[in-house]
Every structure is written in C-alpha cells, then in structure tokens.
Amino acid sequence: MQFVHRLAALIFLMPVNLVGAALGEEVPRQPDGRFLIQLKDVLVALPEENSTMTTFAVSTPPGKSPLEFTLTDLVGAPGRYSATLRSSEWSSVRVSQTRPREMLGEQVAKGVTGVGILSGLDTNCEAWLPQWARYREAALGLPADQYGWTRQDNHRSPPTSAFIKFLDRGERATSRYYPLDCDFSGNCLLKACRNGLTAWIRINSSNKGQGEDYSVKDFDQQIASGAKLLERMVVNRPVDLAHP
Description:
Shape: globular
Radius of gyration: 21 Å
Strand order of the largest sheet: 4-3-5-8-13-12-11-10-9
Largest sheet: 9 strands, antiparallel
C-alpha cells in the first residue's frame, strides 16, 4: 500500500507532458520529431513548436459545441483525446500563425494566416457547395484580370467579394477552379471538401478598414504556400483544393 501511495505521488509531481508516457500512452513521433496523430481516416504530422496554436476539434451530440483542445493538451493526456479524434463523426485540426511568415516551423508566404483539415462529414462545407457552383457559373462570362482571377462583389452589409480562378486551359465550363471568399475586413478563405476530407487556407489579403483593396496579385503565391504546408502536414492522403 505504501508503494501505491508513493507511485501516486510521483505521477502527481511529474510534468503533465510525461504523465501519458508514464501510463504507457504516448503520441508517436516521426523520425524528424513531428507528432503523428490520427484524425479518423487522415494521419497528420505536427511539430511540437508552438503547440498551443495547433487546435483540434471533434464532433459532439447535436446542440453542444464541438470539443476543442490543443496539441499541448493532447500530448499531455493522449488517453483522454486520441480515441475521440479517431472515432467521432468528424475531427479537425487547424493551425494559426505563430510568428510573422511562419507556421508549423515552416516559412510561408506573407498573408497566409492559417491552414486546416477536417476528416469526416463536413456539413458546413457541403452546404457551401451550391454557392460556390453559382459563383463559378457567374464567372464563366466574366473577364479575368491580369492574374487570371474573376471578381464578384456583393454590396450587402457587410460587403463581401468572391474570386474565381479557372485552372485548366481550354473551355472554362470543364475547368477545375478555385473559389476564394473574402470578407469586408480583407480576410479570404479557400476551402474544398471531397471524399471525407476538407482542407482550407486562410489569407489576410489587405487592410480593408483603411481603404485598401484585396491584393489579388498575391493570391496564387499564398495559395501555393498554404497548399505546400497542408501537403507536408497530411501524411497518408493527397490534398487538393481545386473544385471540379
């Protein structure tokens, strides 16, 4: 009995990130040190640096907010969170910018502020598919700017803008495309969902509050930078942000 009390006291005094290891539950790592984490059908690799800015969410029963926790929480108590990430209706991870032009320990293009993925049923993304299709149909007859983007402004309050870029040569009607949604503050989102995997890139394009317009010339570089980060993060699945 005295030994049991001593063991309990030892565990209580251990740093939180070592408790899981002491109980035989650790988050596995790749040879490069990144944590390997299963989100339903998707395996992601995430570095330990700035782990408080890496946030997971999992589905909960209807009427309740999703359960959210950080990579720090997961590493400290894998037994509490790992099974939920694998078994929930959906689970996601989003990464926010930690330092200027740096995310997940990698350099990113100026303006890229976040990336993320969701594995499972994404009802929010599914609900947006008809709207993106309408943007695409409207863009078929619009002129593209010098960077290849078409623009549709919505002057409601607050105002928003949608940018469409057709990615294939030839007929627009059969081309893949990017739909980029931008809000009144200058923040833009590119998102795609298919086959149970949603991926997104968040961009801060301009300071609309000070009268600046969106920096369309930077969209392609920002998307390429965010996509590269997602491809490095997702281990076992290809990531494609183009819409068919």
